[in-house]
Automatic annotation (TrEMBL):
Keywords: Coiled coil. The keyword Coiled coil applies. The keyword Coiled coil applies. This is Uncharacterized protein. Residues 53-87 form a coiled coil.
């Protein structure tokens, strides 16, 4: 009987040892499963972050494109502004020139009318009076046309056409 008790004791020790090893393995398996679960969660978070980074990169590209478009629009507006400034300067010059010519015409008309009035008052030669009257009428007509032309050019914001410049000049 001693032999069989030794075998049972050995079997019990082996069983206890196997149980302890099994418990340790279960514990290690539990640790591995816990760590695997943590790795899966980190992996999901990483994928979410990657998607967010891709989204931000797309937004960044869109913003860069929009900034480039806005810069192009700004350049176009600057060019248009320079063009308008140039046009404004030309119109100011044409307006000043037309004003000077109209002033000269008005002064000449006044001079002609004054001379006509002097001739009438002194009852000088009728021939000269008629010539001065015709000249006065022509200057009145030219002055009115010039003034209307100048006024229309200012209203329409354009330069006095070259073909009409002769109308602004005094005979």
């Amino acid at each position: 009987m001693g032999c069989s008790e030794g075998k049972e004791k050995n079997n019990a020790d082996d069983f206890t040892q196997i149980r302890e090893q099994s418990d340790e393995l279960c514990k290690e398996i539990g640790d591995v499963l816990f760590k695997n679960k943590q790795i899966n969660e980190v992996s999901k978070l990483s994928q979410t972050l990657i998607l967010k980074i891709k989204s931000l990169a797309d937004d960044n590209r869109k913003l860069k494109t929009e900034i480039k478009n806005q810069k192009d629009k700004c350049k176009q507006l600057k060019a248009k502004n320079l063009e308008l400034k140039s046009t404004s300067d030309r119109l100011t010059g044409a307006s000043t020139q037309a004003k000077q010519q109209i002033t000269t015409m008005i002064n000449t008309i006044h001079l002609v009318k004054t001379q006509r009035d002097k001739i009438r008052s002194h009852r000088l030669n009728k021939r000269y009076a008629n010539i001065l009257r015709k000249l006065s009428y022509k200057y009145d007509t030219v002055a009115q046309k010039s003034f209307l032309l100048w006024k229309n050019c200012l209203r329409e914001d354009k330069k006095v056409p070259q073909e009409n410049m002769h109308q602004l000049k005094i005979f």
